[in-house]
């Protein structure tokens, strides 16, 4: 298995055809997985925004005031408003905003970026990243596309690449029912392949000014395994979300 | 960047020299990252165990009885005892046991495996995986070694490869203070490189009877970035753990 960045990608602008940008720069094969940073998907889809687009309502003003009080930093209530408008559930409001986006992803500040955004204050995540992946897939010679983002997680420090959209492959390899080396049946392993591919791609994409938003994974074989498309947990099956709902931050 | 499995690894037994097993099968380069599944590290270190080794105390009996009641499946109190003995903190006891291991990793059932364990009931995680990584590193021509495991996470379905020990590299790349494409300073990104490498390796290791516990990552460049060795969160900085501590499962 091999990973390489698509070279010489320019600054992506609204309306750009990402599939064409990639296809002009690299000869793709059908079984390649094309991993595209959400940043450039958002740029192509015109998901730029400015703080003035989000006049703060009372809830946003309250959240921002409370966060400012807790962290000692000024917080712009318009940013809190943007986070609320991008979210369907506020998972945690203190000491930072952790929300569920419309497409089911749980992330800090609804995944709104303030880095790598020229001429605007904010870059929102793509509206429906799996549909974005599907559109890119329709225009490239590779059969599999993943839209990635970088985000943090509980229990472990730091952030890592994750998949927020995918097309042409299932989210997970389901190993249940297969045999281990001793012929014993595997009980619980469902492997989140799209997240593992996104994590791998993120090592090559980087987080800064590298200019390498698209990484090709070549030679990844799914193998003869079950498939599952479950990716984002509902609150019903997510005890951590249930616990956070009841929890109150105590500084 | 390229990943390939070390071929023809035999069944690993207690006392085996993993560094020699790998070195005999592949020509390593100094900048390779050798990713070794915790399963075989545990086997080499003799971390096999049997349920009879863990006579259940009252707490384990209570936990097992409660889990059996909740799930409808019989639970062996000796297994609960093994989990308790491998842990320093019970993060969640219902509807499954989520604990912190002695070395700081939070995982279900203290990471104790019942797959790929010949002739014994259980395989415990290595006692100090970073020391295991360091020992392997001392015997191979590669400068970087990661001990991996597979585990689940909140918010997202499925499991993925993570690093539980590492040697010869830092846990994370610290991008803070670097510039984005527009010269704006990056604020929060610390990238968990060892977890991303472990996730990538896990795609090649697999979960079943593939027999590929060791994967070499070739051509990964750290680049000129800051480093951090923080990997497992303390409860003080982990709001999810704090929330779980107070939460009670309500079936
Ligand atoms: N060539 C090019 N690279 C970009 C552009 N926007 C971001 N990048 C690069 O894409 C990679 C990932 O950027 P990041 O902001 O971390 O994206 P995210 O993880 O999707 O939020 C980095 O190497 C950036 O330098 C762009 O418009 N053109
Ligand atoms: N050759 C060989 N492969 C093994 C051995 N034990 C496990 N494996 C393989 O190592 C890979 C990872 O196994 P798994 O049980 O998921 O390990 P874990 O993720 O560390 O818990 C799979 O391909 C297994 O078939 C062994 O003793 N010898
Ligand atoms: Mn982002
Ligand atoms: Mn990123
Ligand atoms: Mn394991
Ligand atoms: Mn595994």
UniProtKB/TrEMBL annotation, chains A, B:
Reactions listed under catalytic activity: oxidized coenzyme F420-0 + GTP + L-glutamate = oxidized coenzyme F420-1 + GDP + phosphate + H(+); oxidized coenzyme F420-1 + GTP + L-glutamate = oxidized coenzyme F420-2 + GDP + phosphate + H(+)
GO molecular function annotation: coenzyme F420-0:L-glutamate ligase activity; coenzyme F420-1:gamma-L-glutamate ligase activity; GTP binding; metal ion binding
Known cofactor(s): K(+); Mg(2+); Mn(2+)
Pfam families for the chain: F420_ligase
Nucleotide-binding listed as a keyword: yes
Cofactor binding mode and count: Monovalent cation. The ion could be potassium. Binds 2 divalent metal cations per subunit. The ions could be magnesium and/or manganese.
UniProt cross-references to InterPro entries, sorted A to Z: F420-0_g-glutamyl_ligase, F420-0_gamma-glut_ligase-dom, F420_ligase_CofE_arc
Binding-site residues, GTP: 9-12, 38-39, 43, 116, 205-212
Origin: domain of life: Archaea
The Coenzyme F420:L-glutamate ligase-like domain, residue ranges: 9-219
Role of this protein: Catalyzes the GTP-dependent successive addition of two or more gamma-linked L-glutamates to the L-lactyl phosphodiester of 7,8-didemethyl-8-hydroxy-5-deazariboflavin (F420-0) to form coenzyme F420-0-glutamyl-glutamate (F420-2) or polyglutamated F420 derivatives.
Protein name, entry field: Coenzyme F420:L-glutamate ligase
Originating organism: Haloferax gibbonsii (strain ATCC 33959 / DSM 4427 / JCM 8863 / NBRC 102184 / NCIMB 2188 / Ma 2.38)
